[in-house]
């Protein structure tokens, strides 16, 4: 087991994580995926074991359409700040903690889009959004011809700790994403580039499924 301390992580690696977050935040904000101060982004830094890891995450309650010195902070596997700060991590940091613990991902991005929220309610009874044979499934690194996937949906409770056990139970290692009901998608990847690709693929798939259901008059 690693005994890595936060202070052992190289400064340039921390700065790269913040640069990645700034770039992705600006891009996603331009797409309208951070209504109000919603959404959260994180990038892991340093070595990883399921019992010890660190990541940079967006601070709670910040306007994600602008850049300030108070946009991010570093936290540990329990979501506790690694440095002296008055900033609070996103309220949903515990979900990031659990996804990192289960997957060893390098980055996790969470956005609120209309299509993901609508589809999560439309398919709530089956607890997954089904997608059949759409090309952009390959954007999730799933290469089967005419692949079928089911994107898991979990409950959205006001108390975040109540959500975590469902994430633990429903997370599918093959599908790099999970939806909170009437809320939004969490997507992850080995690094910021891959997590960005995955969230873009999911957003395309949600819109595709929505439009397909509309065309077919599903009720």
From TrEMBL:
Q: Which SUPFAM superfamilies match?
A: AraD/HMP-PK domain-like (SSF53639)
The entry's free-text remark on the cofactor is: Binds 1 zinc ion per subunit.
Superkingdom of the source species:
Bacteria
Which cofactors are named for this entry?
A: Zn(2+)
Q: What class of enzyme is it?
A: lyase
Q: Where is Zn(2+) annotated to bind?
A: 110, 112
KW Amino-acid biosynthesis (keyword) present: yes
Tagged with keyword Ion transport? no
Query: What job does the chain carry out?
Result: Catalyzes the dehydration of methylthioribulose-1-phosphate (MTRu-1-P) into 2,3-diketo-5-methylthiopentyl-1-phosphate (DK-MTP-1-P).
Annotated protein name in UniProt? Methylthioribulose-1-phosphate dehydratase
Gene that codes for this?
Answer: mtnB
